[in-house]
What we know:
Elements: E1 11-13, E2 20-21, H1 63-72, H2 101-107, H3 119-123, H4 134-142, E3 147-149, E4 156-157, H5 167-182, H6 222-229, H7 263-293, H8 295-303, H9 320-345, E5 351-354, E6 363-364, H10 365-391, H11 404-416, H12 431-455, H13 464-469, H14 472-499, H15 502-511, H16 526-544, H17 547-554, E7 559-562
Antiparallel strand pairs: 1-2, 3-4, 5-6, 5-7
Helix pairs in contact: 9-10, 9-15, 9-16, 11-12, 12-14, 15-16
InterPro entries: Cyt_b561_bac/Ni-Hgenase, Di-haem_cyt_TM, Hydrogenase_cytochrome
Transmembrane segments: 266-292, 312-337, 365-390, 435-457, 478-499, 527-545
Pfam families: Ni_hydr_CYTB
Amino acid sequence: MASTPRFPRRGLPRVPGGQPWPPAGADVPARPDGAPDAQEPEGVEPEAPSRPSAAPDVAPPAPASTDAETRDMRRGLPREPGGEPWPPASAASPDGMAPAAGSSAGSAPGATSGPPPGADAAAGEPVDAVPPAAGRTDAATDGVRRGLPREPGGEPWPPVSAGPVGAAEAAPREASASHEALAPREASAPRADLAPSGAPAPRAAPAPRPPLTVRRTVWPGAAARKTAAGAPPAPTAGRAARAPVAAPPPGGGARLALGDYSPVQLLGSAAVLGVFALALAGIAVLLARFVLAIGPGREFLAAFPGEYPLPASAPVGLPVWLNVTHFLNSLFLLLIIRTGWQVRREKRPTAFWSPRANKKRRISLTLWFHQALDILWIANGVVFVVLLFVTGQWMRIVPTSWEVFPNALSAALQYASLDWPTENGWVAYNSLQQLSYFAITFVAAPLAIVSGVRLSGVWPKDADKLNRLYPAEWARRVHFPTMLFFVAFIAVHVFLVLATGALRNLNHMYAARGAVDPEAYTTDPTGLLLFAASLLVMAAAWVAARPAVLVPIARLFGDVKQR
């Protein structure tokens, strides 16, 4: 069976022009005392095999051996400028580098071949009388590599009280080495108590870490939440045991995202929610029809048919400028909602924009495009509102009578019963439409603008009093729900346009064609063709809203840097 070579493998020198490392007098791996030597170094006499077995050679721990081990340990750069190399000279050598005391003394250059002083006196003492070397354990503890402190001004981490990971296996190994040095030397008898050096010893559990002294800012992600919810994963070979999953942030449980669910779970949830929504819609339809079928319901419908007459000075018909601003409003809102969602979900922007006047201010290209669309949308809205009041069209969407509220309830009941109210948008909107258009124009749009300005770079960041009166967190809590209101309004608006006479309504909104007779223009496809063309323009704008197209445009107004 092959044995461990007596001399260690030597590599490149530590300094230019020096001898290979480790030096020729470096420590030799420990071997049984009775094993034959292939080569004996000069000046060392071979041991006499005829020594009586009844008198074992007792080798007390020699300080010179410890010093030799410390000097032969590899040391690195100092921990501070001008300091000594790390680890310090007082630290013990790593586990597995220190050979037995007898082998170290026999292989070191210049060492004497005779036994150390006091060996004869110690030969008669029993093995148990030799005290354990406590200094080696302390040195191993002191030699733990320590890093930066956990807090400013604190001591290096880990603390001095924390022992090394291998301390549990170093203690039995030291005891085994001491026992081998004190045991009688038998050249022919095999040592059955020596375990193979390749067998790994069980590692001691790491000491618990002290709590952090600073506020926590990082929390477990989706993988950690899955691990905490289910069974812990099997530990992989060669990887240390992971720390327990930390608790979720205070103030609520772990938040689950859509990515935490499988496609089958999402599909099943959507199917269940769809069935539930259909059931609620069916109940609402039956309830509305029941209310309108009873006597009080019929009387209420006769008194409030769903709309009230406008003032005599109210204009009739929709002008072309209203059709154009309506289309631009639809286009800008589509892109604003898309870019706003991208800003909310974007983690690593592909490009950044900086104004030429302030190079230090930098925002993502998506946020720049979102704010540019906001400016265009606000400009279009200002033109729309100004023309609305100049031409008198404001009377179509601004309530002029308190009868708007009972008529709006009547129109809602008619919509819920699937018996659409008879209306002609070319002349006047019903009360429910009037309230919804008023809310989207004079309530939701200003809220979106005010909250968006607070979150943009236009807001003065140094105005402390203004920032306390209007915190950014309030703006975030208003801005996102306002966007959801716009999305819900657009969905319901488009559905009702297509469900209550698509050709007639599209002629009103896109072709500025209509009549007092509600049956007119119900077969004219002009509005439908213009609507299809507007959809193509929106699709082209959606596709073109990418960095390859936006970067040249953004460079006209500032500097753009791409990843």
